[in-house]
Specification:
The protein is mainly alpha-helical and 550 residues long. Among the domains are: 3-271, Serine Threonine Protein Phosphatase 5, Tetratricopeptide repeat; 315-409, TPR-like, CATH 1.10.3780. It contains 20 helices and 6 strands. It has a two-stranded antiparallel sheet. It has a two-stranded antiparallel sheet with strand order 2-6. A two-stranded antiparallel ribbon has the order 4-5. The longest helix is centred in the N-terminal third of the chain and has 26 residues, at 155-180. The termini are far apart. Residues 4-33 have low confidence and may be disordered.
């Protein structure tokens, strides 16, 4: 059930803020809009306020999916999750986009971005706005304010809401940490006050570790797994984010934390999540009804084609890959209709990435009537279709592969015939914890997976995918990187993974159009490992200094 969206569709709390660090106490121009003075008059308003923070990855405004509340080419492109995926995946070998009308798209594809890149601006702005919303919620839910409104009887419930809001603030800050390195550090006192200072990457890492460990502690008000309705975050979400933080600690601070990563991944695994038996069901329109989300999703972004529509998220990840061939794919799979709701014809996967899946009997000369390979004999995590041209050309729409991982399928074999997707997006899921555990184990043991538990976790993923387990000595760090590419494709991990391995800027790890070079055999400046602080924030806040290299 789409609980958060039903709450939001009933009523939305209109907290007004500008592009980045807005004063949420500013009175709106429309006198019918709510302010912090009126928004929390009723006790039910606290859950609605939390719901808006919860949904901020997918919401673009408080009105409709066609209206953005920040500056963007269009509302769909203004969504945080959409631009997070672009920065994490489009800048790597994962996928490319042939849309040249929006100049920021080829700049991301070719690793040629600058400080005014629209996609970078949107991701940065949305994260800071999400933090501002969480900070405002924390201000408005202090005990003194509850007492002043006569809401003292619900303090214990609101304390739990506050813990959830702190988690949301933490994952927005983690996104800034990973993408931008040294972002502003706004806290509740900055609302209506001084501009926030800038925090170093290492210091933000330390703050996040302290904040998340506090939320995970026995004394925390953070709900345990199963204590609140999906998709609200729980201590499992906290532990999962901590495991990811520790996995990348060496990038963020210069000091590796492999044992902490391994231990926290095991802590998360031990909370009762289970590997959903059918991989493709996690990426169906009814993934909240077919059991996939309940089994494996540790933290998810919710979508609903009826109650809260978005032109970003899983709608984009489906329709952006296809032209009229969407009907061909459905026919090959024995389905009636089209595999995705619309044909936007922009995203393509280079063959070099698809080859990591070891597809069986690939056809390039005449793939008609098939997907271009024998899917039944291939990795079950492969959701590809080719139209006959192997080498990806970003100037042509029919080259490379199209991907239908995020499709319009329902578990009963029917297809979504509406424009918007109802498929929830897994920001953190159990398979990632298995892979974090295995990589940390390999990092601690000479670069090869050694522990029995780690091997069993890998085997569970391989068994679900229908592919053989490699020999023990083949379970190297590079093999694990490829396995992450297969298991977590398009889920927002690829750039972070390549940076952690030292491959994102290295000429030894090419991909098509890396650095704007066709064969990608080029090194990138080390400064490209993070994105720039955006120009408008630098101009508005004298406390900020640009990242090196920009």
């Amino acid at each position: 059930m789409k609980n958060i969206f039903r709450i939001l569709s009933a009523a939305a709390i209109a907290l007004v803020c500008n592009a980045c660090l807005g004063d949420l106490d500013t009175l709106p121009l429309n006198e019918t809009d709510n302010t912090s003075e009126t928004a929390y008059e009723n006790e039910d308003s606290y859950l609605m306020g939390l719901a808006y923070v919860n949904a901020y990855w997918s919401f673009v405004s408080q009105t409709d999916p066609g209206s953005a509340d920040i500056v963007a080419p269009d509302a769909g492109q203004s969504e945080l999750l959409r631009q997070f995926i672009n920065l994490q995946e489009m800048t790597t070998d994962s996928f490319k986009c042939t849309w040249t009308g929006d100049s920021y798209v080829p700049d991301l594809c070719y690793n040629k971005w600058n400080t005014s890149n629209t996609g970078i601006n949107i991701a940065y702005t949305r994260c800071l706005k999400g933090i501002a919303l969480a900070n405002e919620f924390l201000l408005q839910t202090e005990d003194g304010k509850l007492d002043a409104r006569g809401h003292g009887s619900i303090k214990n419930t609101v304390h739990q809401y506050r813990a959830e809001a702190r988690f949301h603030r933490a994952i927005f800050f983690w996104t800034l940490l990973d993408l931008f390195g040294n972002p502003p550090f706004p806290m509740p006192e900055n609302i209506g006050g001084d501009m926030p200072g800038q925090i170093s990457r290492a210091d933000l890492y330390n703050w996040l570790e302290t904040e998340l460990l506090d939320l995970l502690s026995d004394s925390s008000d953070m709900p345990a797994k199963g204590a609140v309705a999906y998709p609200r975050p729980t201590k499992g979400s906290v532990a999962g984010l901590l495991a990811r933080l520790y996995l990348n600690a060496e990038v963020y601070t210069g000091t590796a934390q492999w044992q902490k990563a391994k231990d926290m991944a095991q802590t998360t695994i031990g909370m009762g999540y289970v590997l959903h038996p059918v991989y493709e069901e996690m990426f169906m329109q009814d993934n909240t009804e077919n059991g996939a989300a309940a089994d494996e999703f540790i933290f998810a972004i919710e979508y609903d084609k009826d109650h809260a529509q978005s032109w970003g998220g899983t709608t984009t990840l489906g329709s952006a890959f296809f032209d009229s061939s969407r009907s061909t794919v459905a026919t090959v799979l024995g389905l009636s209709g089209a595999i995705v709701p619309e044909e936007w014809n922009g995203y393509h996967v280079p063959n070099e990435y698809v080859e990591r899946f070891a597809l069986s009997n690939v056809k390039w000369d005449d793939p008609s009537g098939s997907l271009g390979y024998d899917r039944a004999a291939s990795d079950k995590r492969a959701f590809f279709y080719n139209q006959g041209e192997k080498d990806f050309d970003n100037a042509k729409t029919e080259t490379g592969w199209r991907c239908w991982k995020f499709s319009g399928r329902y578990s009963d074999g029917t297809l979504n015939d509406q424009s918007f997707s109802s498929m929830d997006f897994p920001m953190i899921r159990l398979a990632e914890m298995y892979l974090i555990y295995a990589e940390a184990d390999a990092r601690l043991n000479g670069g090869v997976v050694s522990s029995t538990d780690a091997k069993n976790y890998i085997k569970a993923l391989r068994d679900r995918a229908g592919v053989a387990m490699p020999a023990d000595d083949a379970l190297t760090l590079d093999w694990l990187l490829d396995e992450r590419a297969r298991e977590l494709m398009l889920e927002g991990h690829r750039r972070t993974d390549l940076v952690r391995y030292g491959y994102f800027t290295s000429a030894s790890f090419p991909w098509p159009y890396k650095g704007g070079v066709l064969d990608g055999r080029v090194s990138l400046p080390e400064s490209r490992n993070i994105f720039p602080i955006i120009e408008s924030d630098l101009n508005a806040n004298d406390n900020l200094t640009q990242n090196p290299g920009y």
